[in-house]
Amino acid sequence: MLKDFPWVYDSEPLTKILGIFSDRKADVVVVENKANGRLVGVVTKRAMLKPNLNPSKVSARTLAVRTPRLRPSDSLHTAAKHMLERNLKALPVTEAGKPSGLVTAADVILNSRELLRKISVSKVMTREVITVDAEDTIGRAISVMRDEGVSRLPVLEGDTLAGIVTVTDIVERVVKPRLKSSWGDVVGEKVRTLSNPVKSIMTRNVMTVQASENIVDAVAKMRQHGFSCLVVTERHRVVGIFTLMDALEPVVAQLRETERNIVVEVSYKMERVAVEDKERVMEVADRFVKRFRKTLGNGVLSLYFKEHREKHGDMRLVHCRARLNSDRFQFVGVGEAWRADLAARTALKVIERQLLVRKELAARYPYGSEFLESLPTSY
Fold it and tell me: Is the Cβ–Cβ distance between 238 and 161 less than 8 Å?
């Protein structure tokens, strides 16, 4: 996890983000709320392709994409799953709602070497490659990127790979020079229009990979050179494209078998619940599920909270009803405390005792399974 990550306040203009993308070679820029320091979201390079964008007048908040909450205790599988679902190459990690770090797709992949050591690029690469011709206009390339949701396009001359054009190329060679010209600060830099051909801004020395290469080695090459994709070629012809998102798919698929399969659902019938309290509740639930992961099976852990009228100062007594419903067990536990996470911990302790009693009985008695079937599902 990166502790030194690129970030801006939500009120700052897009021009600052453009500078960060250039200087830091970042995939995303984290956006914080200036008033309270809480996470607003992230801005991606793809946001730069929006039509009629004025970088000096658009704020970071306008372009920020909301991200799922990722905590330091969350697994690689959770991070990879969220990245794939949102098509993001990096996600901020939060503590008490405030960003504390950044985890990248490359981090996840390179820390999953054992899972991926036998998987080749050919197994995961995208074979139906979207391309543009070297004579196509920059405007057409931008339209294709928007329509197809991609951030890079191999450029062909005939059937041969001639280069690649990326969002970074467009930002550095089209957006920023046009912005400088509007300020009267061109400094001899050529200002290209959208009618210029793609070949005028494309990167000609394209880094390629063989389909037989291991995906971890390919991602390590990407990271070394600051790329987010590699073109897969065979005899100078494009046969596929390999991206960080492609490499994440087997991480999610293979780790799914070893991760917990208990979904946690939380509902509150309370006047007000602070974000910090909700995060503490999830941490309590996650610790319980991780502790008994191999035992619980597949199912749902539901936590229901409500407030009593009884008060202690400004605090109301919190009631928590926890229900575990899996393909192996059905338990209910109840707990009360002056804080939601403490009430959840008490309720889950009740379920834990029931779970341990069943395991002990099953191990002690030869006809334990028949006897356990006759036990009530709640106490």
Answer: yes
Strand, helix or coil at 164?
strand
**115 located within any domain:** no
Domain containing 32 equals 7-108
> Do residues 218 and 209 lie in contact, with contact meaning Cβ atoms separated by under 8 Å?
yes
* pTM of the predicted model as reported, rounded to 2 decimal places: 0.66
What would the two tokens of residue 294 be? Answer: 């191999």
**Tens of pLDDT, residue by residue, the chain (379 residues):** 788 999 999 999 988 998 888 787 788 999 999 999 999 999 998 888 887 777 778 899 999 999 988 889 888 888 998 898 888 999 999 998 899 999 999 999 999 888 888 899 999 999 989 999 999 999 999 999 988 888 899 999 988 899 999 988 888 888 878 776 665 555 545 667 789 999 999 998 888 999 999 999 999 999 888 888 899 988 878 999 999 999 998 888 876 655 557 888 899 888 788 777 888 898 899 888 888 877 787 888 999 999 887 777 777 889 999 999 888 888 999 999 988 999 999 999 999 988 888 776 656 655 444 444 444 443 3
Task: Out of 108, 133, 148, pick the residue that ends a domain.
Answer: 108
Q: Which helix (H) or strand (E) holds 315?
A: strand 315-326
Answer whether residue 297 is part of any domain.
yes
Domain count, the chain: 3
Q: Report the CATH number at residue 30.
A: 3.10.580.10
Is residue 322 within 8 Å of residue 303, measured between CB atoms? Answer: yes
Residue 19 CA, chain-centre distance (Å), reads 24
Hey, what are 315's tokens?
A: 């605090």
Last residue of a domain, one of 252, 286, 312: 252
Beta strand 298-312 pairing with 261-269 = parallel
Q: Are 140 and 161 in contact (CB under 8 A)?
A: no
The CB density around residue 162, as the number of other CB atoms within 10 Å, is: 16
As given in the structure block, the two tokens for residue 324 are 């575990």
